[in-house]
Design brief:
CATH topology of the largest domain: NADH Oxidase
CATH superfamily of the largest domain: NADH Oxidase
Strand order of the largest sheet: 1-2-4-3
Bound molecules: flavin mononucleotide
CATH class of the largest domain: Alpha Beta
Shape: globular
Oligomer: single chain
Distance between the termini: 47 Å
Radius of gyration: 20 Å
Number of helices: 11
Number of domains: 2
Number of strands: 4
Helix content: 40-55%
């Protein structure tokens, strides 16, 4: 028994500034292999991962995301929910599997599998001393990303991941999380709203202080203000349409 993984995970923070050194291809392969050993729903393995080191493609993806670290990193991965090969099995075996990849359940299964692979990769990369940040910003324009990467039907780009050596002046420290007792319920869900309000207020203070310390007082917003601002802004509303176009949630 060791606390090695626990301690590694407790140090996680997203890295958005990298040294300009490429990650060797051999290392990338190891990361992907570690990712693939994640559990996978019914052995379906509903994913493909696109490794990107072509500066032109990185630049095009940066236009979608608006984030400089899509270009400035040691390697870029795009995680694709992928039923394309299952569709091939469907055609070749002359069966009708369509409900499995066109249903809401198919979407959940596919997206969960992708997230598990990605997180295995993130943890393995951090263990090797690299930093990483997920890039949901690639969903700003799903159609463009599909076009840039040549994604066929029954696939969907869920997010990217920028990886690399953390820059020397990268001073990320772990960002506070909701206290365990706020999110961990024993035996039954605790839906007491009053208790929840007090918990949110307490966490608001923690987060406000975290930002104040990190930015020398420039930022001091609370968690609930951040959540209210983000979740009330209407973003990426075309996702259902894009999913439908890619063959998802059709039945
Ligand atoms: C699926 C997913 C998508 C994300 N997309 C972005 C992104 O587009 N840009 C970014 O800077 N951070 C992105 N993040 C990173 C989160 O902002 C970050 O994980 C969160 O604020 C917690 O901070 P930490 O990772 O440093 O602990 C994403 C995280 C996840 C899990």
């Amino acid at each position: 028994m060791t606390d090695y993984v626990y301690n590694l995970l407790k140090q996680h923070h997203s890295v958005r500034k990298f040294n300009p050194n490429d990650i060797p291809e051999e290392t990338i392969k190891e990361l992907i292999e570690a990712g693939q050993n994640a559990s996978t729903s019914s052995y379906l393995q509903t994913y493909s991962i696109i490794g990107i080191n072509d500066p032109t493609i990185k630049e095009q993806l940066k236009e979608v995301s608006g984030q400089p670290y899509v270009v400035e990193n040691g390697y870029l991965l795009v995680f694709v929910m992928d039923y394309y090969r299952h569709a091939t099995i469907n055609d070749d075996k002359k069966v009708d599997m369509s409900v499995s990849f066109e249903s809401a359940e198919g979407l959940l299964v596919g997206a969960i599998d992708v997230a598990l692979v990605a997180q295995n990769i993130a943890v393995t990369a951090e263990d090797k001393g690299y930093g990483m940040v997920y890039l949901g910003s690639l969903r700003n324009d799903v159609a463009r990303v599909k076009d840039i990467l040549g994604l066929p039907e029954h696939t969907f780009p869920l997010f990217g991941m920028a990886l690399g050596e953390p820059a020397d002046d990268e001073n990320g420290e772990p960002k506070p999380r909701l206290p365990l007792e706020h999110i961990f319920h024993q035996n039954k869900y605790n839906s007491d709203k009053e208790r929840q309000r007090q918990e949110i207020e307490a966490f608001d203070q923690t987060v406000s202080e975290y930002y104040r310390n990190r930015t020398n007082g420039e930022r001091s917003e609370t968690w609930s203000d951040q959540i209210a601002g983000f979740m009330s802004s209407k973003q990426r509303l075309e996702m259902l349409e894009q999913l439908n176009k890619s063959g998802f949630i059709k039945q």
